[in-house]
Amino acid sequence: MDQSTRHSFSVAAVLRWILVLPAAIVAMVLATVVLHLVITHSFGPDSTIELSRDSQEWVERLFTGLVSGFAFVYGGASVAPRRRVPCAVTLTAFSVLALVGSLIYIATTGRLILGSPARSAASIMLVSTCKSD
Length: 133
Known about the structure:
mainly alpha; 6 helices
């Protein structure tokens, strides 16, 4: 086997490797948008199960981490031209690093990055526990 065939690569394969991370991010954003639309239409005023806006936000926050994480890993790994399992493991590691970084930020500053939704969820829980007394 000569040197040129051992290190041969196609332009399409190189482009696909370059697009792994952008595809993962786009898949994550699209999955989050689709989740929002599904929850809004499934639990809206004209649906069979009607939830308040605050409850819809709570359900959306509950499932966003799962859906967006899955879409990030699946979307990126599906674009990779080969070695998809190691690519999925690497993308999962990126997700875990982002989670750890977020937790460190919260622990050191005492603030959530998206503070107002969390405060509203905490106030909703506080109000609901006060009403039940």
